[in-house]
Amino acid sequence: MVQAIPKTQPILKARGETVLRVEGLSKRFGGVLAVEGVDLEVRRGEIFGFLGPNGAGKTTTLGMILGLVEPSAGKVELLGEPVRPGRTHALRKVGALLGAPAIYPHLSARQHLELIAGLQGGVSRQRVEEVLEQVGIARAAHRAAGSYSTGMKQRLGVAMALLAEPELLILDEPSNGMDPSGMKEMRELMRSLATQGVTIIFSSHILHEVEQVCDRIAVIHKGKLVAQGAVRDLLARGDGVRVRVESPEEAALALGGLAERAEVQGEYLLVRGLEARAVVTRLVQAGLPPSEVVPIEGGLEELFLELTGGGQ
Amino acid sequence: MGILKVEADKAFRRRGAWLLLAFAAALVGLVEYLMLREQAPARHYALTLLLSREAARSLGIFAAAILGAWTAQEYSWRTLALLFSRGTPRGAWLLARWLAMLGSLALVVAMPFGVSLTVLSFYAGGWPAQLQTDGARIAATVLQTAVAELPYLGLALLLAVAGRSVAAVLGGVLGYALVLEAVILWFWPEVGRYLPAALSEAWLGGGAGLGAELAGIVGYALAFVALSWAVLRRQDLGG
Questions:
Q1: Of B2, B87, B235, the CB nearest to A91
Q2: Which of A60, A94, A115 sits opposite B6 (nearest CB)?
Q3: How does DSSP classify residue A215?
């Protein structure tokens, strides 16, 4: 059970201040430009979704933010301090789970947390036990982590990220391998941490999960940022109307220039960027009265597929 | 200091490491027992020291390869990223890892002396009388033997950091120490005399002086560690 336990030292800093600023970040691996000119801004206390198809450059970008990958260009400022491979003091205030959890197979969960505690300092034994309870692996804490299931390894990764009560939590696919109840618990944990002032950068392929927990999102595709903003604002871009007309192709031509996008789907026409009333008025004027009009609310999945060209 | 304790804990919490050490100790003890059984008691003490030194040298090379392989595992397990993403300075980790490797190597090199002398004491019904006068000399021999292995330990660290692969470290260290060095020494002795094997042999044979051989041995080790640092400091560890 992943539980939201009140933190012993709540973060009492101004919400809304910039925790992470990324400017013009690029990374080239040989001849391949994996990340190109990415700008990001993450504010304190928000849950920020970082989305993109496989190979889009998400993990490389997160790696640069964590000082694990040296940028080819651009800069990262974390809690007011520039990040560079080698040493960044601000990283001590960051908890991260990047991809599959990094574990020592021969050490137990408790030994992993003790190891991180020894590394970061100032972490009590009580905090170790508290985090083991929080992520729901207290009963298996004595077992070698190599024997854990994928979901339990993921929980251990989250525990290590949470241990030192970070100001910024970076979770890359945290619910990988978890069952539905574990995924729900993870969402509740993130919400609970955010209310305590912890900033969370969250990457997931489960888009409805992102839609449920994130305040703002950024979408990266082929190394470039293709959208960034409040979830509500970005979803509004996907709102539209589906109309049934005798000749959808003619109707699309009639709406040309007015609508952001008109797409023929069989005997229907999907129109985005134009209100239903305006669509109907225009089609009636063109002598193509619709027999059915259905307003559509844009979902994150549609938006994601649109921005990333079907996730390719 | 935190990272040094972390690296020491990681090294000494490996059950596999202790099993390997126990296996090697049993092997050394068995060889010592069989050897002493065949020899006159007057030769026992000298033979024990000879066996200990030779066993320590051979085991030292294997230990260097295994310690390097365990370092390479940090890449495949992605645990280096775990440490560095928490702000651990890369230089501090490298130094701590090197010191932990040195500690482990010292333990492996000291083990044959401890085991052989213990077997001898059981055989002879007590500790050899020479130990009272030779204790310091034996300790110096243990230290000398450990120092003689430093180039191989440094090479193992470099291969682990640059190759990020267990196979690269095991193949590289054992291939170099057991094959390549022997070939060079055989075919090009004028080049071979500057290699770690020849320098170590000369240094161990010539006493504990601070000669050119010792400088060469330490120089090799430091050069390998410095190269490891040069690779690690800008190494990409994401993904």
A1: B87
A2: A115
A3: S
Nearest to A293, CA basis, from A306, A284, A304, A303:
A284
Q: Count of A–B CB contacts within 8 Å? A: 102
The Cα angle at residue A92 between residues A130 and A152, in degrees rounded to 5? 40
* CA diameter of chain A: 76
Break chain B into its structural domains and give their ranges. Answer: 2-233
CB distance A216 to A274 below 8 Å: no
- Chain B interface, best mutation among A66, A89, A201, by max B CB count within 10 A: A66
One digit per residue, the tens of pLDDT, for chain A of length 312 reads 555 544 444 444 566 689 999 999 999 998 899 999 999 999 999 999 999 888 889 999 999 999 999 999 999 999 988 987 766 788 989 999 988 889 999 999 999 999 999 888 888 999 999 999 989 899 999 999 999 998 899 999 999 999 999 999 999 988 877 888 888 888 888 888 888 889 999 998 888 888 888 999 999 999 999 989 988 888 777 677 888 988 888 888 888 777 667 788 888 888 877 788 888 898 898 888 899 988 877 777 777 877 787 655
| Mutation target vs B (from A106, A115, A172; most B CBs, 10 A cutoff) | A115
Beta-carbon-side half-sphere exposure of residue B94 (alpha carbons within 13 Å): 24
Please name the member of B13, B87, B239 whose beta carbon is closest to the beta carbon of A92.
Answer: B87
Domains of chain A from N-terminus onward = 17-235 (3.40.50.300), 240-296 (3.30.70)
